[in-house]
Amino acid sequence: MEHIISLLVENKFGVLARVASLFSARGFNIESLSVGPTADPTMSMITIVTTGDDRILEQVNKQLNKLIDVIKVVDLTEHAYVERETALVKIHTRAEDRAEVFRIIEVFRAKIVDSTPGTYTVEITGDREKVEAFINQLRPLGIKELVRSGRIAIMRDEVKTAVDQRRRPHMVEAK
Amino acid sequence: MKLTGAEIFVESLKREGVKTVFGLPGGVVLKIFDVLYQDKDLDFVLVRHEQAAVHMAEAYARATGKVGVALVTSGPGATNTVTGLVNAHMDSCPIVLFTGQVVSSLIGNDAFQEADIVGISRSVTKHNYLVKDVSELATTIKEAFYLAGTGRPGPVLVDIPKDVTMASMEFAYPDKVYIRGYNPTYEGNKWQIKQAAEAMARAERPVLYVGGGVINSDASEELYGLAELLNIPVTMTLMGLGAFPGTHPLSLGMLGMHGSHATNMAVHHCDLLIAVGARFDDRVTGKISEFVPKAKIIHIDVDPTSIRKNIHVDIPIVGDAKPVLRDLLAQATAIVGGKKREGKTPWLQQIAAWQSERPLAYKPDPKVIKPQFVIDMIYRRTHGEAIITSDVGQHQMWTAQFYKFAKPRTWLNSGGLGTMGYGFPAALGAQRAFPGQLVVCVTGDGSFQMNLQELATAMVYDLPVKVAILNNGYHGMVRQWQQLFYQGHYSASRLEGGPDYVKLAEAYGAVGLRATEPHEVEEVLDEAFASKKLVLMDFQVDPYENCYPMVPAGGAINQMVYEDPPTDATRPAPAAQDAQKESISLA
User: Fold this and answer.
1) Which regions of chain B are under pLDDT 70?
2) What is the pTM of this model?
3) Which of A78, A165, B221, B232 is deepest in the core (most CB within 10 A)?
4) Marked catalytic residue, from B2, B14, B112, B559
């Protein structure tokens, strides 16, 4: 089963290498990986998508926790979460196809970020299914180049929001 | 007062209570060696090969319970330590290894004697550091010692560029360490401990299975209390020998691939296995799917990754062996009302029956020295009190089988990695820690030749260890496997061209003794143990003796082989085949 693991780590050199080599040394596969700083500049967030049965995931989780530079490990798949991925797609555009490309872009709420007489470069952001569906729609028209970011994800804060609303009833009324 | 990085280094080690550093100098660490030259408080042991320095530091750590320290130069100095690091990592030994690095401005430029040792050692250390600025040096050293010695102990590497040793700054050594991603659990979960104590009090056929973790956390006393209170037999892993006295009636000795019949049968048939500081290595479990088929398992380990890594566990307890066993003992005492369970229970009677059915034994021979006989004689002379180190192979297993360790921290060998070449430097490290103690290295002719250059180190620092070489002219364990599983094809296991060990000892100014017949063994041992010098003993043992019982790799631990299979007509006996080979080579 696919798991999205969110790792809060020290923002130091070599940390990504430690995480990545932990996966390779134990033969665990990384399907996607993305890294960036958090609101606190001393920490970074790594999002890893991996697959495995419960036993493998338990090991992945414990081994990641064991790394000295890893502050927190959360398997988001055990919670409600929001995920996003961005893709940049460069498409061949012949005159007769342009209307079709526009239609697809419209439907997916994607954005043209660059254009030349023969190509459009389109940006799409969404969960993986949406990005996949978009790419599949464009494929017959001729994709010249495709770049996908790693997936990022964040836990939904449902419970906390409900508590907040109970404490501050005026905010509920305002809706 | 401003200190240079090199001075900060030496001062920091002193603050950590370091007395002895093992290592070898080189270009980029000369500034540190210059400070050491003027400093008389820190002993530096100059080795002949960096691998040995790490083994010495490791053995020093294991024998004393302190953190061992080694210092080497960059590039080849650093890469020569890798085997030592992996060894310490697999056996959870606390060491801090300092490697020199080329000047910061040259890092990444393929400079002379540059190696990315932080990258190379990443997967074989508990943690590692590259010190980028002299301002980080003291804090990094403090953290390194803290990480090495706490939680599940392990090796920590600190890479120090040359310019960091030259730069200077105000010295302030931190009192405390705070690493937000590192919070080992020491106390076990109270509810789980209660469950475990109840299960232990209820079990009819319990076995305690203890490993090196009990020794690392100095939990022998608690273990002893618990085993005696509930009358539970104790088996030890190779790393755990000494955690429980080998002569105690409840001691089952070692289990696993070369464990005794009774021990493996007891483990196989138990209804409750209580694993403490042991990690279910494949040499212990044999075929995983058939390991302890009838038992519930309690697993106590400070490292959560060890739990449920190889085997399903019913009651996991994350925590340090000492406090967890202490709490278990308290709980169990309350449950049984403080009354010790004594006498031979049906379970202990069954184990005794297995023991008399197939005791751990060897057949003495009047003409040929049996290797087990040498171990037996060493045991009789030392009563389990000496520090014994071993290398890897048949001699290691025979030592584990026939030497009854009385105390923890007296058995130093390479468990997890199986490093040939470990034993002799380890003996030197232990001897340096305990100058008055008898330290015996039991080794093989193959293993000893992997680090024999340290004879020089031993002589220079007057480390009078006693080396017993069980010389069979083979990589014995390899030969045994080839005999049993590869139709007697002794491919590359015959060791020809070995030195005359008596002359070798004499060449270094040590004492060399030889025994070629059984009646000489005791004489040689007595003379060696009476000597104040380093003694190399060459015991020319039966080359075809095999280590039994044995669980063939991949088999279940109750399916053991107890003796050489009958030689069939199509395959010459090992001796005959060997003779044939020799005659061919002569022709």
Assistant:
1) 568-587
2) 0.93
3) B232
4) B112
